Amino acid sequence: MLEQIQPTEDPLQMLIDNFKQFFPLSTNEQDEVKRLFTQRIVKRKVFLLQEGEVCRHYYFVVSGCFKMFAIDTNFREHNLQFAAEGDWIADFQSFYNEEPSRLYIEAVEPAIVLQIQHKDLLYLYTNYHKFDRNFRIIIERKLMEYQNRILLNISTNADERYVVFQKQYPQLINRLPSTQIASYLGITSEFLSKIRKKASGKKQ
């Protein structure tokens, strides 16, 4: 079992530093982050969200890894997104509309997250416009990821999708079970093994 990856710095400072790539926060805004975001330790296989629940929090991943997935009528999992250190995860539709989710968010590894409630995020949007702009960029990037994934699924083969996955999640290639990667790519674990052997042969 994978051991929890401990953060090398203060989790709240990691979050504040994350915002620096967009619009850096003032001292007052940083104080609001420290006041409204709470830390949560999550064990492996624990759910942050299950189908039918309302997504009450937006999560910043300090350490560890999560998967967001749906289950079809044949009870098969379909991974939609992974989120590791420095990434964000939530069911946008459930979170912003405050409606029951059709998705699951589960810890693939032991993890630490910083979470903020819907009402508190709306407070930041209203009172500190920099948060509105920062989260707009974060959400727009996620939407672009989803759009690119849809295009890949309808225009590329599994080999090409695996190459893109390696570029998008390089830190997760050796951390995720092959079953999870295969689910994300929409193929079987056996077929993923063949793709990896083929790729390995090309490198030699």
Strand order of the largest sheet: 1-8-3-6
**What is the level-2 CATH architecture name of the largest domain?**
Sandwich
Strand content: 15-25%
Superfamily (CATH H level) name of the largest domain: Jelly Rolls
Oligomeric state, counting identical vs distinct chains: single chain
Indicate the radius of gyration in whole angstroms. 18 Å
The low-confidence parts are none
Which fold name corresponds to the CATH topology of the largest domain?
A: Jelly Rolls
How many distinct helices? 8
The count of strands amounts to 8
* Apparent shape: globular
Describe the structure.
- This protein has helices at 11-19, 27-36, 92-97, 118-127, 129-155, 158-168, 178-185, 189-203; strands spanning 38-42, 47-49, 57-63, 66-71, 77-83, 88-89, 104-107, 111-117.
- The chain is globular, with a radius of gyration of 18 Å.
- Helix 4 packs across helix 5 (129-155) and helix 7 (178-185) packs across helix 8 (189-203).
- The mean pLDDT is 92.
- It has two domains: 11-155, Sandwich (Jelly Rolls); 158-204.
- The protein has a four-stranded antiparallel beta sheet. Strands 2-7-4-5 form a four-stranded antiparallel beta sheet.
- With 204 residues, the chain is an alpha+beta fold.
